[in-house]
């Protein structure tokens, strides 16, 4: 059984990102960096507790993705518990509870980071979920609503309720994704709970940044830094193990890009290719002629059209070996 405590440190994880960390993207990450712990997109605890077909599609995964952590959002402790049990029976390696999403529609429903305002309810959710399953239960949150004044006490409630690990994004809810992530407050959480698993998240776009920010933490979580650059996970593992950082060759980028398109098309049909467009745009960002390629990418409808664009990329040399976003 998967365990945060027994997982080799430093932990490197793919963040739960709605519209990005679906099964196809998780598979690509695991092909490149097998030791990465991958998280799912957000899954509604209310929806999964009622088990509608639409929600069940979101919990589909392949063997290569394990260990896989599914993230639940909602505000009803009983539904969190019921949904976690569904996930455990389905084969999930762990469950993560969303107390950090700052999206307006999520916060407006009293979910995600809005729950930071109600630490007692958060504790109830954690305790109910932990009681319902044997797999690990973790929580993801932010520094606070407008500041980090209550971060330590908030995390204490989460740990006392039974959470096995906590993931902290270094911004407040008010900041959303603006400004610079503040990791200093995350380090303080680890100092206060030295025997607990504490992992930081926010503004990691290179292996060097990962090594600089890890400090006393048990691991790091990568979100937007993975867009168009799934190779970042491998580079971070290389940096942590003091190996030479290897940047991908054109041939590998093309191979991974094509594989991603094929998986999406297989799993989601033509709609999968439409979803692939956003990933493809990030992939080609630093190639010469990217502007012209973007025009074609926004019109692709199948993996064969992806191949045609990739054939032209083979003839190009990259402007910059590093991805810059």
What do these coordinates show?
This protein is of the alpha/beta class and 325 residues long. The protein has two domains: 11-240, Alpha-Beta Barrel (TIM Barrel); 250-313, Non-ribosomal Peptide Synthetase Peptidyl Carrier Protein, Chain A, CATH 1.10.1200. It has 14 helices and eight strands. It has helices spanning 23-32, 45-50, 53-57, 77-90, 104-107, 119-132, 151-160, 184-192, 207-214, 232-240, 250-268, 270-283, 290-297, 303-313, and strands at 11-14, 37-44, 68-73, 94-99, 137-142, 165-169, 197-201, 219-222. The chain has an eight-stranded parallel beta barrel with strand order 1-2-3-4-5-6-7-8, surrounded by seven helices. Strand 5, helix 7 and strand 6 form a beta-alpha-beta unit. Helix 9 (207-214) packs across helix 10 (232-240), helix 11 packs antiparallel against helix 12 and helix 11 packs antiparallel against helix 14 (303-313). The two termini are 37 Å apart. The relative contact order is 0.11. The model is unreliable at 318-325 (pLDDT under 50).
Give short descriptive properties of this protein.
325 residues, alpha/beta, TIM Barrel, 2 domains, 14 helices, 8 strands, 14% strand, disordered C terminus
Provide a brief overview of the structure.
The chain contains 14 helices and eight strands.
Q: What Rg is obtained from the alpha carbons, in whole angstroms? A: 20 Å
CATH class assignment of the largest domain = Alpha Beta
* CATH topological fold name of the largest domain: TIM Barrel
Helix/strand-derived category reads alpha/beta
Distinct helical segment count:
14
Question: Can you tell me the overall shape?
Answer: globular
Order of helices and strands: EHEHHEHEHHEHEHEHEHHHHH
Please name the fourth-level CATH homologous superfamily of the largest domain: Aldolase class I
CATH architecture assignment of the largest domain: Alpha-Beta Barrel
Tally of distinct domains: 2
Largest sheet: 8 strands, parallel, barrel
Uncertain runs with pLDDT below 50, 5 residues or more? 318-325
> Widest sheet: strand order?
1-2-3-4-5-6-7-8
Span from first to last CA?
37 Å
Q: Average the pLDDT over all residues and give the rounded result.
A: 92
What percentage of residues falls in helices of 4 or more residues? 40-55%
Strand content: 5-15%
């Amino acid at each position: 059984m998967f365990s945060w405590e027994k997982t080799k440190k430093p932990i490197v994880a793919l963040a739960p990102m709605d519209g990005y960390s679906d099964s196809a993207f998780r598979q690509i990450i695991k092909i490149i960096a097998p030791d990465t712990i991958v998280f799912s997109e957000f899954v509604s605890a209310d929806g999964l507790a009622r088990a509608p077909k639409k929600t069940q599609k979101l919990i589909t995964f392949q063997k290569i993705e394990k260990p896989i952590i599914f993230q639940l959002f909602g505000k009803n402790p009983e539904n969190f518990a019921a949904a976690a049990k569904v996930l455990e029976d389905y084969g999930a390696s762990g469950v993560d509870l969303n107390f950090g999403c700052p999206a307006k529609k999520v916060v407006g429903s009293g979910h995600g980071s809005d729950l930071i305002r109600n630490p007692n309810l958060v504790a109830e959710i954690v305790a109910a979920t932990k009681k319902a399953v044997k797999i690990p239960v973790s929580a993801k949150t932010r520094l606070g609503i407008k500041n980090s004044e209550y971060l330590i006490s908030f995390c204490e409630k989460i740990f006392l309720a039974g959470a096995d690990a906590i993931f902290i994004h270094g911004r407040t809810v008010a900041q959303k994704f603006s400004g610079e992530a503040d990791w200093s407050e995350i380090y303080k959480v680890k100092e206060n709970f030295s025997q607990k698993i504490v992992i930081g998240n926010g503004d990691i776009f290179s292996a060097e940044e990962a090594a600089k920010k890890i400090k006393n933490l048990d691991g790091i979580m990568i979100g937007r830094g993975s867009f168009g650059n799934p190779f970042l996970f491998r580079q971070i593992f290389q940096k942590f193990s003091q190996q030479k950082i290897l940047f991908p060759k054109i041939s590998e980028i093309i191979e991974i890009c094509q594989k991603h398109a094929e998986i999406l098309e297989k799993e989601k049909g033509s709609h999968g290719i439409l979803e692939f467009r956003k990933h493809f745009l990030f992939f080609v960002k630093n190639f010469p002629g990217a502007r012209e390629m973007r025009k074609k990418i926004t019109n692709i409808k199948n993996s064969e059209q992806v191949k045609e664009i990739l054939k032209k990329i083979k003839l190009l040399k990259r402007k910059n070996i590093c991805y810059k976003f």
